[in-house]
From TrEMBL:
Protein name per its UniProtKB record: Anaphase-promoting complex subunit 4 WD40 domain-containing protein
Length: 69
């Protein structure tokens, strides 16, 4: 188990999504708003490199294979 100095949950009211490196806190990927409201839930499949986010609809995201600079 790891401990972090920041909350593990975060959200944005604009429907955007940001993925952070759990070890460093650095941003590894970001998605522009795709929902018409806040993201209510996120699930990811590490074997397929796929993320699903939910508001009133479901959007499937494929973050880049390499971390953002």
């Amino acid at each position: 188990m790891r401990e972090f100095d920041w909350p593990r949950e975060s959200w944005a009211d604009d429907g955007s999504m940001t993925i952070y490196n759990a070890n460093t806190g650095a941003v590894t990927a970001a998605a522009k708003p795709g929902h018409i409201g806040p993201v209510m839930d996120v699930q990811w499949n590490p074997q397929r490199h796929l993320i699903a986010s939910v508001h009133a609809n479901t959007i499937f995201w494929m973050p880049p294979a390499t971390p953002a600079a």
